[in-house]
Design a protein that fits this description.
- The protein is elongated.
- The relative contact order is 0.09.
- The chain has 18 helices and 16 strands.
- The chain is about 60% helix and about 15% strand.
- By secondary structure, it is α/β, with parallel strands linked by helices.
- The strands form four sheets. A six-stranded mixed β-sheet has the order 10-13-14-7-15-16, sandwiched between helices.
- Helix 2 packs antiparallel against helix 9 and helix 6 packs parallel to helix 9.
Length: about 650
């Protein structure tokens, strides 16, 4: 018995857990700032100037009170103010006020400058992260998308990136401002009174203990909130896409119930996360007010005993308020930081997913055949293709692309526990039409997925023109194939652009010719703007049959040696099918064609029909031979047994 099965798929993101390595996530996030190191240094300088202006500006309160206001008040009480002394006092007072105003203005200008520079850094960083995410997503294997919902993937680009934006553009600057404020304010407080400074720090320790306790309770719920948002988004997207099915089967109530469960989970996680997070600011604020009152009373006693001047006490009280404020802000920002780091971890988890492996070295090239029968590579498009096969001895061989496909004892399963194809062997000569029939889950679509190398087989071999497809570069392999799927997908753009998607260098004349071959030209010319008609929302402004015809035209313009039709005419009515039958015959002429069809009438002319059951080929032959056997195919064709 051959050994089983496909490799394990990527693991889903951890559910309900805190980030596995917060430090590693932070280091990796900051690695994106490497190209902005000088700009970040400049930002730090402006932040330092802005914060220092606030700290130094506050110290002027002591000078104003002790050096000017108190003498003025004393002279006023004495009633004998000389005009000269009054003028000198007022001049110094105004000069001090102007210096204080200048310092605060310089701080305001510095704040504006670093805010603008930080905005450039944050937006550029997010641009780079989005680019990496999308680029990496395009290189991920199909297996990854089989194990992750669309909503979960979309939440990386929306919610996770948005939380990062908030942290990079606001939170980090506030943290740095807070750090500089704390250091500068602490120095000034000690300068005025180390006893009162100890009192303020004692209150601050109480605040930090309470903040850490509340933040610890909310941390795990922010992770759950991020995951719940992804689940809600995925469910909404799925229900929007399947709205017609929901209404046809009258499942509106069940759908609402399903959404309510997911929304309730999100509500619970968000409530728990923000309940503790939102408590931080009021608790910290009230403790700060208590600290301010106690400090004022203690400072008043020290002032009465001549230990502090009135100006020093006023300045110290202002510094004490500024000293506790950054801690309160950091506590409030802690939830944002946790949420952003959770989002960053999810993004990095996707970026760390192993991309699709491609060890192939055989490439598809334009070629031409010389009179002596040899093949040479050429730059221009000739319509003649060859496999360029480099060998270890440095030589090159060119094999004409014909479309011979062979399955040699192939065993495959999407998971280790379940075999989908068991010891499947088949051979398709160039130009032959091979059809697969069988019930759902028999393995028909899996065969076509393996030809495209959407998945690699662990046992057995698949050869294309005698070459093991593992040796062929995936892009070149897929360029030699064209697929028309049962579930068509049209992109936002014109009809012309959607057909050209099969070959981007196709001319307008070639697009029209391909549409005619698929018998799509007639209905296209009757659209409001013909080939320039804009398609949106997956072509919902077209009928299902028209969308399928465009998909067939897209395959026709690719002009591949191998064509795969996976229920390609399932959405086309009998009349439309009759209209395109001739066009399809022209499209299939001279090509190797693999057809999966429930309409057995469409495959009567196939050179070989494979009947699959539970991952094995139980019957093979042409239509007449299988009818003569009176086996499963005979039962299917005569209606004695229906496909399920």
């Amino acid at each position: 018995m051959a050994r089983m099965v496909g490799s394990k798929g990527p693991q889903n993101f951890a559910r309900g857990k805190k980030p596995q390595n917060m430090g590693k996530t932070i280091v990796r996030l900051f690695s994106y700032f490497s190209e902005f190191r000088w700009l970040l240094l400049l930002i730090a300088v402006f932040i330092f100037v802005s914060t220092l202006a606030q700290v130094v500006g506050t110290s002027f309160l002591q000078v104003i009170v002790d050096d000017y206001l108190e003498p003025m008040f004393a002279e006023y009480q004495a009633g004998g103010v000389s005009s000269l002394w009054d003028m000198e006092l007022m001049t110094g007072f105004v000069h001090t006020l102007l210096m204080m105003a200048g310092i605060y203005i310089s701080g305001a200008v510095s704040t504006y400058v670093y805010s603008r520079l930080l905005l450039k850094v944050s937006t550029s960083t997010l641009f780079k992260i989005r680019q990496q995410m999308f680029s990496h997503m395009e290189r991920l294997p199909i297996r990854y998308f089989d194990t992750h919902t669309h909503g979960e993937l979309m939440s990386h680009y929306t919610n996770d990136v948005d939380t990062l934006r908030e942290m990079l553009s606001n939170t980090l600057s506030q943290l740095l401002v807070g750090a500089v404020t704390i250091i500068g304010t602490f120095i000034m407080m000690v300068r005025y009174s180390w006893l009162l400074t100890l009192l303020v720090i004692a209150f601050l320790c109480v605040q930090m203990f309470i903040a850490a306790m509340l933040a610890g309770r909310s941390g795990k719920f922010f992770k759950e909130q991020q995951q719940a948002i992804g689940a809600v988004n995925g469910y909404i997207e799925e229900m929007i896409e399947g709205q017609k099915v929901v209404k046809v089967f009258c499942h509106e109530d069940e759908t609402k119930e399903g959404f309510a469960k997911r929304n309730e989970r999100l509500c619970h996680a968000a409530t728990e996360a923000n309940a503790f997070s939102n408590m931080l600011m009021p608790v910290m604020g009230n403790l700060a007010h208590i600290c301010y009152a106690v400090t004022a009373m203690a400072g008043g006693v020290m002032g009465i005993h001549g230990v502090l001047t009135l100006g020093s006490l006023i300045s110290f009280l202002e510094y004490s308020r500024n000293f506790s404020r950054p801690f309160a802000q950091v506590s409030q920002l802690f939830g944002t930081i946790l949420s952003a780091l959770a989002g960053a971890e999810r993004i990095f988890a996707m970026l760390d997913e192993a991309p699709e492996v491609d060890d192939g070295y055989v490439t598809l090239v334009n070629a031409r055949q010389l009179p002596d029968g040899s093949i040479e590579e050429t730059a221009e498009r000739t319509g003649f293709w060859a496999w360029k096969h480099p060998h270890k001895d440095g030589t090159l061989t060119y094999t004409p692309v014909k479309g011979n496909v062979e399955f040699d004892h192939v065993v495959f399963g999407y998971t280790p526990e379940k075999v989908v194809l068991n010891d499947v062997s088949l051979y398709a000569n160039d130009g032959e039409k091979i059809a697969f029939v069988g019930s759902t889950g028999a393995g028909k679509t899996t065969i076509t997925n393996l030809i495209n190398r959407f998945y690699d087989v662990p046992d057995g071999k698949i050869r294309y023109d005698g070459i093991n497809i593992n040796k062929i570069k995936k892009d070149d392999l897929r360029r030699s194939l064209a697929m028309v799927l049962q579930d068509t997908h049209l992109f936002t753009g014109t009809v012309k652009e959607n057909i050209r998607y099969g070959r981007l260098d196709a001319t307008d004349e070639e697009i029209v010719a391909a549409a005619k071959r698929a018998n799509a030209h007639y209905f296209i010319t009757h659209l409001p703007k013909g080939y320039d008609t804009m398609l949106t929302a997956d072509g919902t402004n077209l009928s299902q049959g028209q969308r399928q015809l465009l998909a067939i035209a897209r395959a026709a313009i690719a002009d591949p040696p191998v064509l795969i039709l996976d229920e390609a005419t399932s959405s086309i009515d009998t009349r439309t099918e009759a209209l395109i039958e001739k066009g399809m015959d022209q499209l299939m002429e001279g090509r190797t064609v693999f057809v999966i069809a429930h309409r057995l009438s469409t495959i009567r002319n196939a050179q070989a029909i494979m009947v699959l059951e539970k991952g094995e080929i139980i019957e093979r032959g042409n239509h007449d031979a299988l009818i003569a056997q009176k086996g499963k195919y005979y039962q299917l064709y005569t209606g004695m047994f229906e496909l399920s």
